[in-house]
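[#protein-structures] MJ: dropping Exodeoxyribonuclease 7 large subunit here for a structure pass
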Amino acid sequence: MSEPAGGKSTADEPWPVRVVTQKIGAWISKLGWVWVDGQVAQISRRPGSSVVFLTLRDPSADLSLTVTAHRDVLDAGAPELAEGARVTLHAKPEFYPARGTLSLRADEIRQVGLGELLARLERLKKLLAAEGLFSRERKRRLPFLPGRVGLITGRASAAERDVLMNTRRRWPAVDIKVLNVPVQGPTAVPQIIEALKVLDNDDTIDVIVIARGGGSVEDLLPFSDEALCRAVFACRTPVVSAIGHETDTPLLDYVADLRASTPTDAAKRIVPDLGEERQLIDVARRRLERAVLTLIDRETHRIESWRSRPSLARPELLVDQRAADVTALRDRATRSLDHRLRRADDELRHTVARLRALSPAATLQRGYAIVQRSDGHVVRAADEVKPDDLLRVRLAEGELRAAVKETE
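AK: finished. structure tokens for Exodeoxyribonuclease 7 large subunit:
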């Protein structure tokens, strides 16, 4: 069956497999020659064959490609190439229609040396630092006593043993969830990232520890991987990095919320020591007892000083003193009142004397009389009355009624 004239496949005119494979091969060949960086997961040198087969794996993802190269190309660029090594190769993608597989055909292979690896790590370190992944402001404080600890480490490794033994020695009741993953090799980074996601999504986990024992720079490369660093940065749960020895500083140490120099040091950082905490409690209890006793003694002395004061020792003195004050004030008031009464009495007698001296009654006592007409008018002259007028004569004692006979 030939390809349709319009170049489109339909249900009535489908493409045969050979056409599809040809088109796939044509599209893939358009990519051309490219430089590829990866980690060698497998090397296959078949006896009697001039072709070497490599499995090239992405260090940060669960992806791989098959690479074919002439033995001379491999011997010229990387004669001592071993599984796990990092390489950079110049290759062209090819699609094999017979098997329906994709591979890379390499004409140059370069093994990445330690110096170049370190230079790459330094460039990556500067990039992550510029993006703020190492910022101290974003690092979270670890809980004082985590309810549950997540541990990512190699299976049956010394790092796992050190973390478990020391954490349980310091705090026997600690609960640890262990996820065993490869800690080196081509599959390390994807599985560590997957384990990190599992623990970060577990709400019972309060802190995550990534631990590994010592090793060469190449062995610790997975813990400087960019994808792992970004995964740790995105975690909601605090992460502790416990990689290698004290002198080993992979990039994970800079991104993690806390760097432990060794797995044993991580155990000391994530849980408190039960014996030390008991000693601290005993010390705090003794300090509290001393503080309470000191407070009681001080308040007792204060109460004793209050009791020794006259107001409390002899409270009747206050009443007596106030009674004396009241008596003195009452005496002063009595004397002042008597004085005022006597002075007022003297003034009254003087006033009465003056009044009596000026009173008409006093004049009457000396023999004078007051003559009034019947209408009450006081007679002061003789021409004010007429004969036969009735007059009233007021004496010092009594009155007289008189009639006028004549006037002069």
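MJ: nice. The chain has a mean pLDDT of 87.
AK: one more thing. The two ends are 189 Å apart (CA to CA).
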